[in-house]
Amino acid sequence: MTELDEERQLQEYDKGGMIAVIEAYPDQCREGIALGDGFRPEIPTGVDKVIVCGMGGSAMAGEVARRFSRVPVFVNRNYTLPSFAGDGTLIIAVSYSGNTAETISGLDAGLRARIPAFAVSSGGKLEEIARSHGIPHLRVPRGYQPRAAMGYLALSVLRVLAQAGLLRIEPDWEELIHALESVRDASRAAVPEADNPAKQLARSLYGRIPLFYGTAGNTDLVAMRWKTQVNENSKQPAFWNVIPELNHNEIVGFSDERLRQGLSCVFLKNDYDHPENRARIEIMHELLHGKVPAVVIGADGRSELSQVLSQIHFGDYVSYYLAILNQIDPTPVELIESFKRRMSAR
Ligand code: PA5
């Protein structure tokens, strides 16, 4: 059995040092807020929609913006822009590497249509394009996996949107950092499994295919992030879906006893769920009893922002411990890299 409490065991698999990055995440978020604070792009008045061009880990900055914005935010994961891009649109191109083809193509389309834009990256082509077109560019520190730089990407963008009056919340940044720190204090590697909820959840998911269920407009982005972190850190299949929609289709998929073997459900709730969606979680949890292992996970923190981001942070720990149980290094994502190489070699 893989021992999650032995430092030697963690070091054996975690060659890329992912645990240090996760444990420094509250500080990274603090730096992300400061980066956004110091970056004051000129945002035209009258912005009535935002398009965030970004893929994978970088797209999470868009998901967080979507969750808290007072104007519609569309997370554009494609080469082209949606047809509604035009007057009143602000484009934010986010690519950690700065070299993601879809993100660059989306920004190019926006620049051709003379849509106001700014870009966020650690360098790469995005920075060059921003410089050559004279659009504001925020540079975040290099040396991270894109998904592990979410604090820099998402918090800097959120801070910029707050300054521009485009959020529907007034973030309490200090409260957010405290909520993240309390997740870290409970889930960090030094806390033994007997007292560590992230290690315990990872253990319960080990060897199974997790289905992460969030609630519409609330924890849906958390479910998406948990799924992608389990894919990339733990290197195994995982899926996500949203309540209430899944009660109208996916729920029937649990009918066949043979096919539901090996699945595990994780419901992600917080204090800001619609009461009807909370009831749906309870009923579904009861319905699955005896069929599929299922747990309901709540959130730390007080505000909506803290609850969403601290639950995301907790999921980062879970995916990390699951990687160790899977006896794999959480950091490298060779399949993503080789896929990108094959695409650009064409
Ligand atoms: O986590 C990852 O490595 C990926 O999901 C990347 O974020 C994705 O491929 C896009 O790359 P970038 O974030 O550098 O734009």
State the main characteristics.
Rossmann fold, alpha/beta, 13 helices, binds 5-phosphoarabinonic acid, 9 strands, five-stranded parallel sheet
Distance between the ends = 44 Å
Report mean pLDDT, rounded to a whole number: 97
Largest sheet: spatial strand order: 2-1-3-4-5
- Please name the CATH topology of the largest domain: Rossmann fold
Bound molecules: 5-phosphoarabinonic acid
- Helix proportion: 40-55%
Which class of the largest domain in CATH terms? Alpha Beta
Q: State the low-pLDDT regions, or none.
A: none
Q: Domains counted in the coordinates: how many?
A: 2
Using the 3D structure, state the CATH architecture of the largest domain.
3-Layer(aba) Sandwich
Radius of gyration: 20 Å
- Overall shape: it is globular
- Report the count of strand segments: 9
Number of helices: 13
Estimate what percentage of residues fall within beta strands: 5-15%
Structural class: alpha/beta
What is the element string, with H for helices and E for strands?
A: HHHEHEEHEHEHHHEHEEHEHH
